[in-house]
Amino acid sequence: MESVPGWLFFLVAAVAGLELGGLATIFIQRWIDERPIFRPGRSVCPSCRHTLSWRETIPVVSFFMLRGRCRHCDTPIGGQYMLVELSCLAWSLALAHHFGPGLTWGVYLILGCLLVAGSFIDFETFMLPDRITLGGAVLALGAGIILPEPGWRDSVAGAACGGAFFWLLQRAYRLWRDEEGLGTGDVKLMVMIGAMTGLTGLPLTILAAAATSGLACVVYMLRPGAKGLKTRIPFGPFLSLGCMFYVLYGQQVLGWLNL
Ligand SMILES: [Zn+2]
Question: Which chain regions cross the lipid bilayer (predicted)?
């Protein structure tokens, strides 16, 4: 695919990112509302249940056209969905810049959009759908076999160790505090993420997740009206962020650290 002009590839990457972002918002909405995921059907306004036309569901564009409100009941809608679409767009362009046209871009684009969708669901419900974590794990292991990086051995080892490590953490926390600290969703998510980063990338990914979630905890606790140490934040989004950061810049960072 050397012959594809750069600008054309970036255009394709932008459209693909926005479209996948649009699909991700449909998945998020239906999963949270417990509606069938794959049945054809239009999106509805979460407040007045009015069916949205296709013109009201174009990624990002619709949000600005409607000024972020439902045309019928004037409730603000779509803010977080636009954030999902923009995240997928940014991810697609960053991958395109980093890997150029090819299979790696396509595969990581899909995996990253799954992580984005999972993160938003985790933020809203403190749950991670199996379709994302286990489906993503199968896809990531498949990718580990066909893509040159991180190589299938590292990918399988990463999936096994990521899952096992978080399973042990979950058990240990339960024994220590007699309550759930980490969800089973996080354990399954780590199988997927381990397969993506490989065993080599796992420590850096978890470190980045711990650092960013620690920072977020502090910001959360200092917020007016916060419940101090009782504040609960989901860990899945930070693991996803760490993983996506590693996919783009992990090798570089490991290079700087001489590892
Ligand atoms: Zn409405």
Answer: 6-28, 105-121, 128-146, 189-222, 234-257
